[in-house]
Amino acid sequence: MITRLAIYFVVGGAIIASTTYFASVGRGFVAAFVATVPTTSLLTFIFTHMEAGNAGVMAYAKGLLYFLPAWLSYALTVVFTLEKIGLVKSLVLGLVIFLALSFVTRLVVKNWMS
Asked: Closest Cα to residue 31, out of 40, 18, 12, 41?
């Protein structure tokens, strides 16, 4: 189990390192592509299937869809506030909005599924 977790950690780190590298050399489009191309979710689907089978993959896939509006709001907040309020405040505001919308989404889904 520890070996598999170490592999997952290295793979995830490689994606983050690649994204950071491309962004730092002015290749923002490539960085965004690396970060959003389904490699992360694809690998998570594969690794989750290895650990928990179809049920684990289905739960994760549904979770991704539930949090899509919150993530889009986070990204849009950073895009529209970065130049006005700076990086840290922009990220904090985006994170607060993400968490608030995630909480609301969870409540809605929980009540809807009941």
From this structure: 18
**One domain for residues 43 and 76:** no
Other C-beta atoms within 10 Å of 96: how many?
A: 12
Polymer length of the chain? 114
**Same domain for 49 and 3:** yes
Q: Is residue 62 domain-resident?
A: no
83 in the same domain as 48: no
Measured CA to CA, the distance from residue 18 to residue 69 in angstroms comes to: 26
Q: How do the pLDDT tens digits run along the chain, 114 residues long?
A: 788 888 888 988 888 899 999 999 999 999 988 887 777 788 889 989 999 999 999 999 988 888 899 999 999 999 999 999 999 999 999 999 999 999 999 888 888 876
| Containing structural domain, residue 16 | 1-53
Query: What's the predicted TM-score (pTM) here?
Result: 0.69
Residue 29 lies in a domain: yes
Q: How far is CA 4 from CA 10, 27, 54, 57, in A?
A: 10, 32, 19, 17
Q: Tokens 């990220």 identify what position?
A: 91
